Amino acid sequence: LRYENGVLVQAATRGDGATGEDVTVNIRTVRSLPLKLHTNSPPSVIDIRGEVLMFKADFARLNERQREAGQKEFANPRNAAAGSLRQLDSRITAQRSLRFFAYGIGSLEGTSLPASHSALLDWYMQLGVPVCTERATVKGAAGLLAFYSDIAEKRAQLPYEIDGVVYKVNRVEEQQKLGF
């Protein structure tokens, strides 16, 4: 998502990692995403990285509508979300309950980057951009394993599907030293 002076101006898929598809018209139908950031002093440019997803209950309702209309059902929420975002008709996208979780950052101009990943996600929440609430800042292997166990216990009850747990180094300075 690209915001300029606080206003959503572009959305793109990651595509092949270098070139993505412009999905701006469709991303504007995602009700949880602000078209204008919730701040009086936005950065001049911010590229917010994240993922479009569909909750399990919304996916079930979508497939029920597909069956009733005699249309093909979707295999899983991830494919349904990706296909919905790439629709040529944004009215169809708007009928599908898509959501968004921010998880990273691209370009940032006009303000400084928070010192930690957790602070970045907190900032996104202040700006009105949704992030996953199932997150924690932990220390050491014991903390990592405890978080993993906690998510494993909750996994079946989460309103969305997950592949597993993602760990990130919290300090941005250390992330930059490590590279990608």
What's the shape? globular
Please give the radius of gyration in angstroms: 18 Å
| Element order: H for helix, E for strand | EEHEHHHEHHH
What's the helical proportion of residues?
25-40%
Class inferred from helices and paired strands: alpha+beta
Largest sheet: 4 strands, antiparallel
* Sheet with most strands: strand arrangement: 2-1-3-4
What is the rounded distance between the termini? 20 Å
How many strands appear in the DSSP assignment? 4
Give the topology.
Layout lengths: L1 E3 L2 E4 L13 H4 L17 E9 L2 H13 L8 H9 L4 H5 L4 E11 L7 H11 L12 H15 L17 H7 L2
Antiparallel strand pairs: 1-2, 1-3, 3-4
Description:
There is one protein chain. The chain is an alpha+beta fold. It has seven helices and four strands. It has helices at 24-27, 56-68, 77-85, 90-94, 117-127, 140-154, 172-178, and strands at residues 2-4, 7-10, 45-53, 99-109. It has a four-stranded antiparallel β-sheet with strand order 2-1-3-4. The model has no long low-confidence stretch (mean pLDDT 95).
